[in-house]
Amino acid sequence: MSPAPHRSADGIAPSAPVRRSRRTLILLLACAGILLAGLLGLGTWQLKRLQWKLDLIERVQQRVHAAPVAAPDPAHWSQISAANDEYRRVRVSGVFLDALSTKVQAVTDLGSGFWLMTPLRSADGSITLINRGYIPAGAAAEVSAAPAGITSVSGLLRMSEPGGGFLRHNDAAGNRWFSRDAAAIAAAHGLQQVAPYFIDAAASAPVAGDNAQIRYPAGGLTVISFHNNHLVYALTWYALALMLTGAACWLVREDRKQRQPLSEGKGAAAGPGD
User: Fold this and answer.
1) What's the Rg (C-alpha) of the chain?
2) Residues 189 and 234 in one domain
3) Helix axes 230-269, 22-64, angle to 10 degrees
4) In angstroms, rounded to a whole number, what is the distance separating the alpha carbons of residues 274 and 146?
5) 220: number of CA atoms within 13 Å, CB side?
6) CA torsion angle for 56, 62, 64, 67 (degrees, to 10)?
7) Are 113 and 60 within one domain?
8) How many CB atoms lie within 10 A of CB 128?
9) Residue 148's closest CA among 95, 74, 93, 91?
């Protein structure tokens, strides 16, 4: 007669440990493998993006410190791109259309105020919007009018900023502008043949004997900044991949521990005397 199963003091037999089937374990490991491949792929992709961003920053720094070149003319407007042309130091000549200046809200190192965008008509009839610089809000500061006659302007080529901000949109009818949208500003003034970019004018030379006073509009305030969190993202994906690998190893080890007593029991049952 087989011995009665051992019972606890309250008469209830203890439950056996729950064992996963081999099929369930294989399925879990397969899912972990797919997820691991995805995490490693994301980490590697972020490393490639990091290298691309570093190359871009290096190219931009070279453009910023290079000698100015002629701004792209209408024949080359379709070939302009942010990757190849933004922050390139350029120069353009023409006549300012000061009466058609537009104020675009801005926050700079000098405080809150506006960018003053003034159209410049070149000899060929094409128009380029020039960001002459920052002017403070209100009438407390004196703002110089645009130079009369043919003027040469040098500065950094910037790509148009269509639409507006994340929560605020340009209102052409109300003359409220939150981004330097070259096409929209030109359309609001009925201008044609307008460049798909604008130029951030360089800082004006200080007036002799008046160095302490800021001249408005104040140019040369372009902020060149690139978000570069790719290394952090790559390390995050690789860390998750490492944690997933550790979890899979723990799962396999626990499964072996659960199956080992069962194998030993079968071996003892098949011993001499049975």
Assistant:
1) 34
2) no
3) 160
4) 108
5) 9
6) -150
7) no
8) 25
9) 95
* Residue 109: both structure tokens together: 């190192």
- Complete DSSP assignment for 174-218: TTB-SS--HHHHHHHTT--SEEEEEEEEPPPPPPTT-TTSPPBSB
Q: Closest by alpha carbon to 118, among 186, 169, 205?
A: 186
CB atoms within 10 A of CB 76: 10
The verdict on residue 176 lying in a domain is yes
106 CB-contact burial (10 Å; exposed 0-12 / middle 13-18 / buried 19+): buried
Q: Which helix (DSSP H) or strand (DSSP E) does residue 235 occupy?
A: helix 230-269
- Stated length of the chain: 274
Q: What is the DSSP letter of 219?
A: -
Distance CA 89, CA 101 (A): 23
What is the pLDDT, as a whole number, of residue 109?
A: 84
Q: Highest-confidence range of 7-16, 56-65, 134-143, 154-163, by mean pLDDT? A: 154-163
Residues 164 and 243 in one domain: no
pTM over 0.90: no
Coil, helix or strand at residue 105: strand
How does residue 232 score in pLDDT terms, banded at 50, 70 and 90?
A: very high
| Three-state secondary structure string covering 116-154 | EEEEEECCCCCEEEEEEEEEECCCCCCECCCCCCEEEEE
138 and 182 assigned to the same domain: yes
CB count within 10 Å of CB 67 equals 7
